[in-house]
Amino acid sequence: MHRFANPTQFMRIANAIYPWAAGLSVILFLIGLPIALITSPPDYQQSETVRIMYVHVPSAWLALMIYGIMAGGSAAFLIWRHPMANLAAKASAPMGAVFTGLALITGMLWGQPMWGTFWVWDGRLTSFLILFFLYLGYLALGDAFEDSERGDKAAAILCLVGSVNIPIIHFSVEWWNTLHQPSIVKLGGDGVKSTVDGSILLPLFLMLGAFTFYYFAVLVLRLRSELLAAKIRNARMSQVATHAAIDPAAEGRLFVDSARLPRASAE
Amino acid sequence: MDTLMNYLAMGGYAAWVWPSYGLATIGVVGVLLVSRRTLKTREREFEMLKNARRGGGQS
Amino acid sequence: MSVFTAVLARDLRLALRQSADSLTVVAFFAIATVLFPFGVGPEASVLARIAGGVVWVTALLAALLSLDRIFTVDYEDGTLDQLVLTGAPLPVVVLAKVVAHWLTTGVPLIIISPVLAVTLHLPAAGYGPLMLALLLGTPTVSLVGAVGAALVLGTRRGGVLLSLLILPLYIPVLIFGTAAIEATVTGVSAGPMLTVLAGFMVLALTLSPWATAAALRQAVE
Lengths: 267, 59, 221
Fold this sequence. Notes:
By secondary structure, chain A is mainly α. Chain A contains 8 helices and no strands.
């Protein structure tokens, strides 16, 4: 575990994974999309709308998997001060929010023809809506501090608090849903489960694979990006420091250090 | 041509199937493009900073 | 224990000195609740149907407004730094501050809630479970809210941010709080829902002080 704490080593592994993840994702999309959209037969109940499932289920899967990865990363960051775990969580969060949003929208587009309405307060839909808010909260909190390091820790704590709450929220919403809507027509509401058929499973698994490898490939890109951002910050700081060493007056010109001013006037 | 139109109609569900795929494409491709662009800008910025520092150190 | 009572007594004394703060929260609770009849019409049957939910939602919003009081003052005047530096057991300090917050905002909300329920034509059977549910639910609200309040210390736009972080986490309490009232009104026992609310409170009581302490520690670092 601690082997990966070293950014160089971590990135060596990540960069080695990258071409494989990117390649597999592209290949799986190239095979999966035509099957999902063209060759797979329409479902006997859901007709052609079953094709929505081939983007909906992978999005929902990524929405949950990414939160799991973020929770693991946040825990590793808070317990072992593992910097790369934090970067992985931070780099994943926007993707998690996008895929939760996609799962919600594609779910609504499937619900309108199947349920006759864009939105029902179905347990699963409602839980995903709340998951979406949790992602937004994480992003907003990580972004709200002047000092980015503080934002990291606060967001990591929030992520863990959220992960403790997700099962409670899900259980509450499911219970609330049965309380209020005992007779909702669940026409294939379980999407995959109710119609386990080879013709559906093949495109579904291909797309699941394509989405998952896509996530890992883009995660590596985003990790490189996050590391560079940290390096740029450090370079800026050391630049200021060297300038100050050569020419003390330069420091004042580069940026006003509020802690320094009163001391200077006292002298 | 007819079979193509027939296919695009998605058994009458075109209005739901195609937007789903359209939005999913925008999401997937969009995240990829944004991530790559951020990476490129930061790479360029880092290069510039490195060069500037080397130049500044010599003077 | 002495740390607990000392912090509790101090916070209560401060709250008493600035009792306008607590009153403002109660006033907000009353006004927000009174807005609903204007929104949905004064028909008694409609209001009776939504009374429990309205009281709960407005109580949550009122509590949310008061949450930043828990730590902000201590954070800004440096008391928090001192508490952390002196090595006081932070979860105990947090618990004391949360209890003080609950006593000064949660309890007033519970006391005034039946009056507001009257204006919403809540059926007679609903008053007992309403107050019991609030009694069991508002401590969870304060406990969970404290985590959020500690996390947003030192941010820009802390108040709006706090609501984004915390409101989703309040949904379980809201669900079982209103269900308890609804159950009694429709003639079912509210016992199971109240038990679940009590369970949430115990869970929040065991986890929230630690999470809040962790958040405070990173805030003063």
